[in-house]
Design a protein that fits this description.
Layout (H helix, E strand, L loop, with lengths): L5 E4 L29 H6 L2 E4 L22 H5 L3 E6 L5 E2 L2 E2 L1 H16 L4 E5 L6 H6 L10 H8 L6 H15 L4 E4 L4 H14 L3 E5 L13 E7 L4 E5 L1 H8 L3 H11 E2 L4 E2 L10 H11 L2 H10 L5 H9 L1 H11 L22 H29 L1
Parallel strand pairs: 1-2, 3-6, 3-8, 6-7, 8-9
Antiparallel strand pairs: 2-7, 4-5, 9-10, 11-12
Helix pairs in contact: 3-14, 5-6, 9-10, 9-13
């Protein structure tokens, strides 16, 4: 019998120093959320929270003029922001794992984006993709774990994986950023759950990640900020941008992905079983019915389109609902927002901490080069 454990590590205590338009779309019905964990499952879930007592800055909320736009200015302006940092994708330079990449994007994030606002970093938990892969074996089958990949490509000494992970934890801890990692859950689901808790407390939420899956969270009070590799900067992505790009509600876009598939995440679309059912047909039907569940319910009782579309929606309804369960973010992960995660960050020593981080990486790189050369000469 597994026992619920909570591991808390306190980092070194260092004295370190956009308003959205109201959506024009009517609310739409969506598929019922994933089945919640049973009490037994909740007890068996292992949670790792790495946090500490974080310093407060002297009360200032850094929000530039560019952070605000559209209607409802005063209402949104009064809400403070909480940032969620999706760590894993920042640890890659293209497809190559890179701690330097993590350090660069973290430095730009503190300097350009979060300033003194609270930041919560989230890691993928071990076995986080297993539930979705049981539903769909091709789900993220091409993606590899950052730390495991480092083991295979940079195995110059025992404990390399632990040290790589510790590098990241140390710099986040010293910068007063709590880290959350929930065993058996992807960071996406943990962030989605915590975003809901932040909103309930009256804050705005900003998710820092290149992952497009987070677009389904976008609302008047939820924004994304995405790293732009070519421009070497972060860029905010709001509900206004979303509507301009897709001309639909975020729930409708998720429904569209369930129908046409998502090659990046390894989710096949309906065209794999019904070749004539493409994006154009899906957009037309969703524009009329609003969501995948509404569309499937309508198709079950009456004709909603041409024969091939009608057959696809009735014969392959379970296929589409499976896609929804795979692509929709969970918002019921067993994790609880802590008050100390919501304090302003003291930013005074950020530059020194990050400078030391890059210095440590450079020194480690020199040792690796020496040991590799030594190994080659002895071979």
């Amino acid at each position: 019998m597994m026992i619920n454990t909570i591991e808390v590590a306190v980092p070194i205590h260092v004295n370190i120093k956009p308003c959205l338009p109201i959506s024009p779309f009517k609310s739409i019905s969506i598929i019922k959320p994933r089945k919640r964990m049973t009490k037994t499952e909740a007890v068996e879930a292992k949670t790792t929270v790495i946090s500490g007592s974080f310093d407060r800055t002297v009360g200032r909320q850094l929000m530039g003029k560019a952070d605000f736009c559209g209607n409802g200015l005063e209402k949104t302006k009064s809400k403070k922001r909480v940032f969620f940092l999706d760590v894993n994708p920042l640890c890659y330079e293209g497809s190559r794992p890179s701690l330097q990449s993590f350090g660069r994007w973290l430095s730009l994030f503190f300097d350009q984006v979060s300033h003194a606002d609270p930041v919560i970093a989230v890691f993928d938990g071990e076995g986080g993709t297993e539930h979705r892969r049981q539903l769909l074996p091709s789900y993220k089958a091409h993606r590899r774990n950052f730390l495991r990949q480092l083991t295979a490509s940079q195995r110059f000494s025992r404990g390399r994986v632990g040290r790589s992970h510790q590098f990241i934890l140390d710099v986040l801890g010293k910068c007063n950023v709590p880290v959350v990692k929930i065993e058996g859950h992807e960071a996406d689901d943990v962030i989605a759950t915590l975003v809901g808790q932040v909103l309930q407390r009256g804050y705005r939420a900003v998710v820092a990640s290149p992952d497009k899956d987070f677009k389904q969270l976008i609302s008047e009070d939820v924004q994304l900020v995405m790293p732009l590799q070519d421009l070497d900067r972060w860029s905010f992505y709001t509900l206004k941008h979303y509507i301009a790009q897709y001309n639909c509600d975020p729930h409708s876009e998720l429904s569209l992905r369930c129908i046409v598939g998502d090659d990046v995440d390894g989710v096949p679309g309906i065209q794999h079983v019904v070749p004539g059912f493409g994006r154009k047909t899906a957009l037309k039907l969703l524009k009329k019915h609003g969501s995948l569940e509404n569309l499937l319910n309508a198709a079950a009782v009456r004709t909603v389109g041409r024969d091939y579309a009608q057959e696809a929606l009735t014969k392959h309804a379970d296929y589409l609902r499976r896609n929804y369960e795979v692509l929709a973010l969970r918002r019921d992960v067993v994790v609880h927002l802590k008050d100390e995660w919501l304090v302003e960050r003291n930013t005074h020593n950020d530059s020194n901490i990050l400078s030391n981080f890059f210095g440590s990486l450079e020194e480690t790189g020199k040792k690796v080069t020496y040991q590799n050369r030594l190994h080659s000469s002895n071979g």
